[in-house]
Design goal:
Pfam families: BioY. The protein is mainly alpha-helical. The chain has seven helices and two strands, in the order αββαααααα. It has a single domain, classed as Arp2/3 complex 21 kDa subunit ARPC3 (Orthogonal Bundle). The two termini are about 10 Å apart.
Amino acid sequence: MMIKDSIQIALFCAITAALGLVPAIPIPFSPVPITAQTLGVMLTGALLGARRGTLSMLLFMLLVAIGAPLLAGGRGGLAVFFGPTAGFFIAFPLAAFVIGVMTDRFWTSLGLVSAVIINLIGGVVVVYAIGIPFLAAIADIPVSQAALGSLAFIPGDILKACVAAAITLSVRRGYPNLRD
C-alpha cells in the first residue's frame, strides 16, 4: 500500500468521525438517532473506491472498538457493537464497499442521477438491510416494526445521498485522478 493510500484511508476515517460531531437528532419512537455519519460512509466509498473505502471504514470501526468516542454523541467502545445501532454501524464497511464497486464501474461517466442512486443503494439499502434486523433482534421487536420506524430516516438519507453525489462529482472534476 502506498503512502497516498494510507493518508486517504485515514483522512476519510477522520471525515466520518468529524461528521459524528454534528449533533445527533433523537427520534422519540426509536433508539436510533439521525446522524450525519452515513454521509461520511457514502463519500468514503464514492471517492476512495471499494478497497480503500472499506479499509477506511474498518479503521473507523477499530478506533470505535478500542474506545475512541467517534460515533455521534461521543459514543465508542465495545458496547456499541451490542446496542440497538450496532447493525447500522457494522454495515459501514460493506456500504462503502458497495458504493465503491458501483462508483468504480461508472467513474468516468458518472452523472448526478447515477451517483445518487449508487449512494442510495450502498448507503441506505445496504445499511438498512443490516441495521434493521439487528435493531429488531436487540430491541426484541418484530422486523416489520423496526423497518416501519426506520421510515423516518428516509428523507434525511435521501438528502445525504444527494449531497454525497454532488460532492463526488465536484471532486471528480477537480481531481480526476483521485482514484489512481
